[in-house]
Design brief:
By secondary structure, the chain is of the alpha+beta class. The protein contains two helices and six strands, in the order E-H-E-E-E-E-E-H. A four-stranded antiparallel β-sheet has the order 1-4-3-2. The chain has a two-stranded antiparallel sheet with strand order 5-6. The protein is globular and about 40 Å long.
């Protein structure tokens, strides 16, 4: 999903592990968009992709919460990290901007 207005996308490492450049398609994109992996971590199963798209053509994200989520707020992640559906429960320890800034500095 898009995490910055500059075209950064966070996904899982297992999605990109055999490639460096990708074409992204999906809701909100007018046409396929080229992207390049600029950071990934197999152990954390995270990857950061830079999408090359003209300004103003980024899809709008789905606003789930409009304020800053207080630390220790319960959050849940649902998905298929391997072959079975999983639900993970954690508490907020960092804000999203701090995580994205950290990943961009490592890229």
């Amino acid at each position: 999903f898009f995490v910055t207005n500059a075209g950064h996308v966070i996904t899982n490492h297992h999605v990109i592990e055999n490639g460096k450049r990708f074409v992204l398609i999906g809701p909100g994109l007018i046409e396929p968009v080229a992207g390049e992996v600029i950071w990934s971590d197999e152990k954390q199963d995270l990857a950061l992709i830079k999408v090359y798209i003209q300004e103003g053509q980024l899809p709008r994200g789905l606003p789930l919460y409009s304020g800053i989520v207080p630390k220790t707020t319960d959050v849940y992640a649902y998905g298929y990290p391997e072959t079975q559906f999983a639900i993970h429960h954690r508490q907020v320890s960092l804000h999203a901007d701090a995580v994205v800034d950290f990943l961009l500095k490592r890229a």
